[in-house]
Amino acid sequence: MSELASPTTAALDADVIVVGAGMSGLYALKVLRERGLRVIVLEKAPAVGGTWYWNRYPGARCDVPSLEYSFGFDPELEQEWVWTEHFATQAEIERYLNHVADRYDLRRDIRLSCGITAATWDADTNTWVFDTETGEQLRSRFAIMATGGLSVPHRPDWPGIDSFAGTIVQTSLWPEEGVELEGKRIGIVGTGSSGVQSIPELAKVAEHLTVFQRTAMFTWPSQNRPLTHEEQAAVKATYRDLREKQYHSYAAAAGTSGAVIFAVPTDDRKIKESTPEEREAALAEHGFSASRIWADTATDLDANAMAVELFNEMVRRTVDDPEVADSLCPKDYPIGCKRPVLDAGYFETFNRDNVTLVDLRKDAVVEVTPTGIRTEHGFAEIDVLVLATGFDAMTGALTRIDVRGEGDHLMRDDWADGPRTYLGISVDGYPNMFMCVGPSSPAVLANYPPQIELQVGWIRDFLLHLGEHGITRAAVEPAAQEAWCEHVADVAKDTMFMADSCNSWYIGANIEGKPRVFLAYAGGLVAYMERCNDVAAHGYEGYALS
Ligand code: NA7
Predict the structure, then answer these.
(1) How far is CA 404 from CA 122, 401, 542, in A?
(2) Is the dihedral of CA 332, 352, 389, 340 positive or negative?
């Protein structure tokens, strides 16, 4: 398809406008342009890379192995790129994505420092109109929102936070020029993946580090290591097999390790049937991982509680101060409710003389002053305050833009009770708009690059189909969307994600007032793509095409 049939084709700035130049946006540009579509990518950041541009905090690293967290669409790209570690650093992945942008000559169609404030459906011409932060207006037939699932930072609204006179920095908005940390009194809030990764690094350079923890985290040693030439060559020799495994797996992962496969037990023994001696032997053999090997912990809350006890036993054995250890023991929620975190010496860091833990459940924040944080029982003087406080996940990027569909509806209003999508790709009332790794798709539950290749590939084929048939409007049928949403909720309902005690960003629980709705598709990538491909095979059923 080189021209999209319509009287207004000439007035379009592009056939497709893609919002975001992260992994999805870059790949969308590549595959759509090579099929003859005119594509413009609008990117808020001054550089490409998305997540891997913004999250440059000390210790930032992917929790999926580098040889798996990479594109498989071009065997030459796979062979030429050299990863240096089992889990790649932010800097290395950012370099990789810049290499992708250069190698496929993508930059000429990407406008940087050009975020959008609004996307408005024009029903008269079946086009989308984008208002940019630079004051421009651009029009396209189709919109692809590659805006990221973890791209809108969440910041605590503690009294006085704006009065802080030192440096305040969010892990996900870490400045390119870096932050002066050496010899400083650093405070960090948040012990999710970003906090857990940065705490050991901050402790190494700080005069003193104070960690403000609201919820203790399940985190396992990543066992990261340099990749040897032999190891890399062995994977590269059989890369096609690995990719095939990824494309046909639950989590787009061939299973070499990493956070997305942590829920998968490695043992067929049930912890509920184990003896104390067997559990002790598991601790001796697997350490922290003794808590995640058992066959019954993902589905049985009592079994899960026994696994939690094994985990906490390891915390107590690792952390010297019993009171600190007790605070670091996750309580009140099951393993598997939140995304597993992988660390490098996290618990050991609390044995350092220059690290203090403030358990906010015992000693809540009262206020931030110009010089530090006052809690009920103390005051920590701070020069640099690091906020590792997470994101308005999965929906935040889209609800912050004025996305205005049919009948002048705003997406943020339509999603007030949680996102409603068809296949996590389209939304009833927003014709010709597609989302990459959107809400109700596997998204954060699966490895991104292979998942993106499949999802964006599906969108590309759909656009080609529309072009070949002279179709200028593709709208979701309400009943199809309802059925998909029902299926998504049904699949999630008996998982640890939805346990009453589970308060995670997967269900919006980290953002005050956000509806408690599971935001991804827990049925796995294979089932998901089968459904998408089935929809395509049946002439894109669930869409009204005209
Ligand atoms: P997360 O996982 O959402 O972690 C955010 C952390 O910040 C978590 O410990 C929160 O505690 C804490 N938090 C948030 N707001 C507050 C306030 N107001 N007071 C105290 N503590 C607070 O975000 P990350 O960036 O670490 O990781 C996101 C994903 O990125 C990760 O899962 C990987 O996929 C990569 P809470 O647990 O909500 O009590």
Answers:
(1) 9, 9, 21
(2) negative
What is the gyration radius of the CA atoms in the chain, in angstroms? 24
Q: Contact, 229 vs 38, CB < 8 A?
A: no
439 CB-near residues (< 8 Å, 6+ apart): 394, 395, 419, 421, 424, 519, 520
pLDDT tens track for 300-340: 999 999 999 999 999 999 999 999 999 999 999 999 899 89
Tokens of 483: 């059925």
**427 touches 433 (CB < 8 A):** yes
CA 472, CA 452: separation in Å to the nearest integer? 25
Mutate to test the pocket of ligand 1, among 171, 333, 510, 511 (most ligand atoms within 8 A of CB): 510
| Phi, then psi, of 139 in degrees rounded to 5 | -125, 140
**Residue range 401-413, pLDDT digits in tens:** 999 999 999 999 9
Separation of CA 508 and ligand 1 centre (Å)? 11
Check: CB of residue 324 under 8 Å from CB of residue 492. no
Query: What tokens appear for 380 in the block?
Result: 């920590």
Ligand 1 atom nearest the C-alpha of 338 is: 32
Among candidate residues 534, 531, 423, 411, the one with its CA nearest the CA of residue 477: 423
